[in-house]
Amino acid sequence: MPKSLLQSKKAKKRRVYMAKRWAEKAGRGECRDCKNSAKSTSILCQACTDKAVANQRRRSAARAGVCSQCLVAKPPKGRKICLECTKTKRLWRERNKDRIRERHLRRVHNMSIDEYEDMLSDQGGACAICRQKTGERLHVDHCHTTDIRRGLLCGSCNIGLGMFRDNSDYLMSAAQYIDR
What we know:
Layout: H1 3-26, H2 46-64, H3 83-95, H4 97-109, H5 113-122, E1 139-142, E2 149-153, H6 155-163, H7 168-179
Antiparallel strand pairs: 1-2
């Protein structure tokens, strides 16, 4: 028997053993990723298995020099996806800006667009620090230790606050320095 075939059989046996062991340890066939029910011999449910297989296929494609999206075309040097898939992704982003923004607000700040709009109207459509109304979208400011939202800031104020590491003592000494 060829060595590579023997190694793959051993690896498969090991994976099955580990899956059974994890399933026993986790108890009653629970998916490792989403905690939904899974087969008693599997560590993943069917949906998570399909995701894992698709991700593995994409990683393999990238190593083989094939586009990780369409798995057909060859991407330019130094890129993972072909030019056609790049154009498709760019078009999708342009058409779905509101959807992307909503997903970002939900994922990062755990807030809806309605909550954002309410905060914006409470502040009168202006930055919470400099009180200027700019044409740009305001950033959600939050405490990095407690994740409590404080208000909406323009880009300059948001960067400035970040440079002072959200430390009020630093801000006070900077204000005193400017007043000299």
